[in-house]
Amino acid sequence: MNKKEIFRTLKPFNWITASILTLFGIFNSRMEIGMGRVTINMFIGVPTYFLLAISGMLLVFWLQSLDEETTNDSKNPQLILIICGVFYSIALALAIFHSIVYDIGVFNIISIIFIGILWILTIYYGKKMENKSILIIIISSFSFSFGIFYGATLNRWNIPFYIYLFFIAGFSLQFSKDVIRSFKVRKNEEGDQINTLIKLYGPVKTQRIAFLAKIVTIISITLPIFLNIYNSTLYLIPMLIIILCVGIAAFLTFTLKLDEKYSPIIMILLRLSVFMAFLLFLLASV
Hints:
By secondary structure, the protein is an all-alpha fold. The chain contains twelve helices and two strands; from the N terminus they run H-H-H-H-H-H-H-H-E-E-H-H-H-H. The chain folds into two domains: 1-156; 160-286.
């Protein structure tokens, strides 16, 4: 695994976008919360989740370092795991400081403990799994999308239902995008074709998984318009654009044979949908 491959695995851009989602989680749950507390949550909560996102992507890197099919040079999985634990521990310590000093409750700490348990289970089962491709996609998508939920935990314990839907939408959209990316042929240093997810499930089942994830995205994006979000009017336009883009992508995913010919149009539509989702989360909080 060369430097380019490591950069693509760690996805530093995801650290930033996950932090932005944390910010949106704070904005969309600020009802009856003073601006002083919102400001404190922004300055402490966002860096906290930034560290958690890094730990999540390091966990993904660790999983890939164990995958003999996608790495050919020597790695130190133990060192990667230690660094992952360091970032997680710093985030947990920062969350405890945030909770105690500013008296925001313990829901944020509970959320981080939940993440820690998820990381431990991933390590336990990741060692045993021969094909880790689906686990890699799940952890990567979770690390990206959970920020919006974590941001909401900083403001209140009774999190609005639409925040859960935002999290599900972000997760399913990112998950679908990563599954579709698996159809893109990759090659190792020997020139052999690698496509571990398709080896695990087969092309037809893999496409069905991506299709179902898109349907979940459409449902999760649509339902909040009927709930008590801050600005349903501004929410409506990006919502319709996302439904259109994801709907077309779902149709193409269902009808095309992506193992025979990869369609970049689907990925373009999903990337546009991710961008519009960020705009949607922002406008919903205005």
